Amino acid sequence: MHARGLAIALLVIVLGAAAVYWPSPPSSGHAGHVSAAGAAPLGTIRFPASGAPEAHAHFLRGVLWLHNFGYEDAIDAFREAQRVDPGFVMAYWGEALAHSQPLWFHEDRDAARAVLARLGASREARTARAQTARERAYLDAVETLFGDGSLAVRGPAYAEAMARLVAAYPDDDEAQVFHALAILAVMPSGDASLPYRERAGALAEGVFARNQEHPGAAHLILHAYDHGALAHKGLGAARVYARIAPAASHALHMPAHAFVQLGLWEEAAATDLKSWEASVAWADARGHSVALRDFHSLTWLHYEWTQLGRFTDALTALRWVDDARAVIKPTDEVGGHHYADSAIGRGSGPEALRNDRGSMRARYVIESERWFEMRDQSTFDNVDELFALGMSAVKLGDLPRVSAAIGQLQEAARQDPGNREQTAIMLLELIAMLEFAQGRPTEAFTALRNAVTLQDGMPKPIGRPYPVKGADELFGELSLQAGRPAEAVAWFERTLTRTPNRSRAVLGLARAAAQAGDVEKSRQAYEQFLANWRNADPDLPELQEARTAVGR
Length: 552
Prior knowledge:
- The chain has about 550 residues and is mainly α.
- It folds into 3 domains: about 1-30 and about 260-440; about 45-245, Serine Threonine Protein Phosphatase 5, Tetratricopeptide repeat, CATH 1.25.40; about 470-550, Serine Threonine Protein Phosphatase 5, Tetratricopeptide repeat.
- Helix content is about 65%, strand content about 0%.
- It contains 27 helices and 2 strands.
- A hairpin with a 4-residue loop joins strand 1 and strand 2 (about 105).
- Helix 10 packs antiparallel against helix 11, helix 18 (about 350-370) packs parallel to helix 19 and helix 21 packs antiparallel against helix 22 (about 440-455).
- It is elongated.
């Protein structure tokens, strides 16, 4: 392979001395979300508890924030309930539980124990203060969650305690929802999670059938079915959750998990834009740094805009990240997972925003195919942007720069074992593109088949797909360039099974079907592409191509 033998010196000459940040692999969890300010609706629940009526109102709002993963706001509400009625036992339960954020992979056991200690000096003393057997059961469960031992032991024990509570009080919808969350907290990764997801989803669906305004039920339906095989089951909840809890940025984002997996780009972008705006309002209202805006929803919104052909808006999203990076201090923690109360948890720092920016830049260039915008670029923020640099160099005929990028990706694969597979796929893709550009299609397709094999071993995407250019989609594009349109059709259809309604794959299918002589399939694909891009930037050449093809 000619590209692999180039000297390291070439890397420095062509790409410069760029510092590289290797991104973490995508996870199904969220690294940090925040909630909007004010007293806008959060949903409707019924949760009897012993205490003063005025305190109970604050308690209910705290539980609503828990259901919407608005942890700082939940703590504020529970503390207000305690201020009004210092003997309100369940307010201490709620504040302690707010320090467990299992789907964000965070807990602060010391902070939770400190909350419980304010209720009583010992477990026995705290239990004695509970006024009903049901409240004792809730308190016993949270004592188990924050008891002795590792989380790997405590998590399943807590789930079992919630199962006992559900069995004892089958009409308690709150117990059903918190039990569903406890199940999701202990599920394994990958397809092994399916039985857990289905069990938790059934619990949440039962509550949702009884109360169409229950935010926790709608929310956990979406988390339970956040898997390629189940995403369609969450569509109903996705279309109502944002309406149920418009005060919560996370509630506004979660519907996108279903919409993106089903290729419903307009709905996904609309809800993530609201989520981003709500997080900006929340951070401003509480006087927080811009670092605590919800950049997670912004990165999703950016990808959704690229699927809609709204590249001007995608550039605006990049500017929002740049504006934030310009004022964030090195000590700031980014992304909404570090709140004013230090007990809540911490984000990953400005480097996480740098990584987001690199991936967003890569997606913008690849999805818009504006390769010339990287012509003179010599630095990159992560391997996604490095890959986009290499792909741009292929398209611009700058083969030395392609070879340099390949060398850097090889080094990245060696340095970052945790992300090696994703980097290896992009490396093989870039090798394939270089081989193809140099007139060696056999070697190119061999490299691509290896990339597809690696990609097939990864879970089906639940959000922005990784790698940033799917190996199957690239296989279709190169097959079309090689004069193999029937093969290209098969590869684009395979892409659309993995990532439904991806606009570049839909357009590729339209082109390949036309060259293969399947006029009807081509017309249908072009129509779908035009539907995706109906609000796209004007005068894009792809729009003119599609309109001409369907006779508009």
